[in-house]
Design a protein that fits this description.
Low-confidence stretches: 1-22, 245-258
Number of domains: 3
Structural class: alpha/beta
CATH architecture of the largest domain: 3-Layer(aba) Sandwich
Radius of gyration: 24 Å
Number of helices: 11
Largest sheet: 6 strands, mixed
Shape: globular
Number of strands: 13
CATH superfamily of the largest domain: P-loop containing nucleotide triphosphate hydrolases
CATH class of the largest domain: Alpha Beta
Distance between the termini: 68 Å
CATH topology of the largest domain: Rossmann fold
Mean pLDDT: 81
Strand content: 15-25%
Strand order of the largest sheet: 10-9-8-11-13-12
């Protein structure tokens, strides 16, 4: 890929090496490492600077570089695919000092990406954060738990490639220890293989454990408005950097206090991306993520008589047997079915092969239904 001239090409290799060393030391707090340096090498030869996007706003972005915060235009990386736009957390190649305006010329290949489907009727994904190590799902204990929503967040988190973590906020509002233990157990059942923490920013409880976990990389804060994300971010940052508003008394829901995705270095190490409250969390090609959230169902399904069992009315279904025996909550199976169907529908909109498979499955089930009705009419069972 060629880029418009951004600096003199007569820079010596020694000055390029010196600039690279400077960038490495000043950007280390934001996650820069030898892997990123190797990826950036072709752009360093062109005289471009490495940096990490800390905020994006209407075609412009703030980038932390060895020169400090740079305001850059993303005009040269505006693809038709919305999944390839510059986003918070990206490592980018940006013009050196002297350009007016300065441009982002490219972004480095993403290690992970948190993506959801857009609210539009088009088949599009929206990337919310890139190069994330920990996906922190904040869930408020001030309102009734929506376990299905937690499962949805976790499916996207697993699919992103990051390690999910559920943080139950506002634990001080739970009336007693027994109730709190019961709520934690419900979430742990909903989130197999995922750490579940309870925190109270008001009482400064549980924050040290969370800070230790996120200090080892980049964490993104996810959740609905009113989940306490901004309060949590301020507690981790050690300062009131993010605006906080009270939740509504009538339903415990919050207002959008965070309106953009912001990347901030934590004082104890690590980087935090705070996101606006997410009302809609649509799946986007998250088949493996759904499988990990419902790993116990996937394990049971291996013992079903038919390899393509839909866990509906097929004989020898190990999943339905587990529901009937009480081993598997019926709510979990219903939630699993819903997310699988939703994900298939999303994928089918852009994949003709998947559409054909779904059509064949519908025909097969229709034929089975007609055969069962015919057998019933003829008194065969």
């Amino acid at each position: 890929m060629s880029f418009p001239s951004s600096s003199s090409s007569s820079s010596s290799s020694s000055s390029s090496s010196s600039s690279s060393s400077l960038s490495s030391s000043s950007l280390a707090a934001y996650g820069w490492d030898e892997g990123w340096e190797a990826e950036f090498a072709p752009y360093a030869e062109q005289g471009l600077l490495p940096g990490r996007v800390v905020r994006v706003d209407r075609g412009l972005c703030d980038v932390i570089t060895s020169d400090g915060i740079v305001r850059a235009d993303t005009e040269f990386v505006v693809p038709r695919d919305p999944m390839k736009v510059v986003c918070t957390g990206d490592w980018v190649a940006v013009d050196p000092e002297g350009g007016d305006p300065r441009y982002v010329r490219a972004y480095l290949p993403r290690r992970t990406a948190f993506v959801r489907s857009t609210s539009s009727k088009r088949s599009e994904g929206q990337i919310l954060a890139a190069n994330v190590d920990h996906a922190v799902v904040a869930v408020s204990l001030a309102v009734e738990l929506e376990l299905a929503r937690v499962e949805r967040f976790l499916a996207l988190a697993w699919e992103s490639g990051a390690q999910p973590l559920v943080v139950l906020t506002k634990a001080d509002l739970v009336p007693d220890a027994a109730t709190l233990a019961h709520l934690v157990q419900d979430v742990e059942t909903t989130a197999p293989g995922v750490p579940v923490l309870t925190v109270s920013a008001h009482l400064d409880e549980g924050l040290d454990v969370l800070a230790a976990i996120v200090s080892g990389g980049t964490a993104v804060l996810l959740g609905q408005s009113g989940a306490g994300k901004s309060t949590l971010a301020n507690a981790l940052l050690g300062d009131d950097i993010m605006d906080v508003q009270a939740t509504r008394d009538m339903d415990g829901k919050g207002r959008h206090t965070t309106t953009t995705r912001n990347l901030l270095a934590l004082p104890g190490g690590g980087v935090l991306i705070d996101t606006p409250g997410l009302r809609g969390v649509g799946l986007w090609d998250a088949g493996s993520g759904v499988g990990q959230v419902f790993s116990e169902i996937e394990d049971l399904a291996r013992d079903c008589r038919f390899h393509d069992c839909a866990h509906d009315s097929e004989p020898g279904c190990a999943v339905r047997e587990a529901v009937e025996s009480g081993e598997l909550p019926h709510r979990r199976l219903e939630s699993y079915r819903k997310l699988v169907r939703e994900n298939q529908w999303i994928v089918a909109k852009t994949d003709a092969r998947v559409r054909a498979e779904i059509k064949r499955d519908w025909k097969r089930k229709g034929a089975q239904g007609r055969a069962a009705m015919e057998a019933k009419r003829n008194g065969w069972r």
